[in-house]
Design brief:
This protein has about 280 residues and is an alpha/beta fold. It contains eight helices and twelve strands. It has two domains: about 220 residues, Rossmann fold, CATH 3.40.50; about 45 residues, no CATH class. The strands form four sheets. A six-stranded mixed β-sheet has the order 1-3-2-6-7-12, sandwiched between helices. It is globular and about 55 Å long. InterPro entries: AB_hydrolase_fold (IPR029058), Carboxylesterase_BioH (IPR050228).
């Protein structure tokens, strides 16, 4: 037997599907698909060992699909895809786990719920940081690949699904709704990448050229060049503890026509740096 045949015998071609089933049925459609900037394990168990959101959803009777985006987690990066990035522990402390210590935005003072100190050396922080994975630098490639993969998942499920997206996974539910509007029952955007037409890392810089995504999404009238067709203007924030935002400059703004009938819930923690700007998604 040659090497290739031996490998095939040991690892026959297969298609692996994993999903979670709750303990009781719901009267309404009860399927959830969840995706994150990191691995799907973030939904299963919190860094302090307590049950995560997946356990809660299962306890409420939902059927749950947890997605690793292409090029990360159990869908790993391959050479030739492009460069990868990993956030340093110091940045994680400042932005996510111990932001009250740094006070880089006004709402950081409210950050009191993280278990432990949130600093390097604390066992909860160390477990959290160790669970992180790299992501590719090219957000257009990442979002496009995730859109295609998750559209195939929705086709397999075959009925409308509530789609959750968090952080860098935040644009994916909208991109899914764009290509599978009949299979996206509603969208829950948990502190999604943003704000519209920008990206934020304490300060606002250009980003998300299609408004809610880096990858192309359907507008009416159609967009061929997002820089020219989606010209924006700055809008002043309503309060001093919020960031100014960007909206379409035209008096007749283009519409995301495939998303018009999909309900959207944006969820923002009051202590998060997203509290500076998620208001612009309303």
């Amino acid at each position: 037997m040659d090497k290739t045949a031996a490998q095939t015998a040991q690892h026959p071609p297969h298609h692996r599907r994993s999903f979670y089933i709750g303990g009781r049925e719901l009267a309404a459609s009860g399927s959830l698909a969840c995706m994150d900037a990191d691995e799907n394990q973030d939904w299963i168990t919190k860094p302090d060992g307590e049950p995560g959101w997946a356990s809660y959803f299962l306890s409420q009777g939902y059927e749950l699909y947890l997605v690793d985006q292409p090029f990360r987690g159990r869908s790993p990066w391959s050479p030739g895809i492009g460069d990868v990035i990993v956030y340093p522990a110091e940045q994680i402390q400042k932005m996510f786990t111990a932001s009250r210590n740094y006070k880089l935005w006004p709402q950081a003072e409210l950050h009191t719920q993280w278990p432990g100190s949130g600093m390097m050396g604390d066992p909860v922080f160390d477990r959290f940081y160790a669970s992180g994975v790299q992501m590719i630098k090219d957000p257009v490639l990442q979002e496009g690949a995730s859109q295609a993969a998750c559209a195939a998942l929705l086709d397999t499920i075959g009925r409308p699904v509530i789609v959750f997206g968090h952080s860098a996974g935040g644009p994916i539910p909208f991109l899914l709704g764009d290509v599978r509007p009949g299979l996206v029952k509603s969208i829950v955007a948990l502190e999604p990448l943003g704000p519209p037409f920008s990206k934020v890392s304490i300060r606002t810089v250009p980003g998300s050229p299609y408004g809610i995504s880096n990858a192309p999404i359907t507008y009416e009238p159609p967009v061929t060049d997002p820089v020219a067709d989606l010209a924006t203007r700055e809008v002043k924030a309503a309060a001093p503890d919020l960031l100014d935002g960007r909206l379409q400059a035209s008096d007749t703004p283009r519409k995301l026509v495939n998303l018009e009938r999909i309900p959207v819930l944006v969820v923002t923690a009051p202590a998060s740096y997203h509290a500076l700007y998620d208001c612009w998604r309303m």
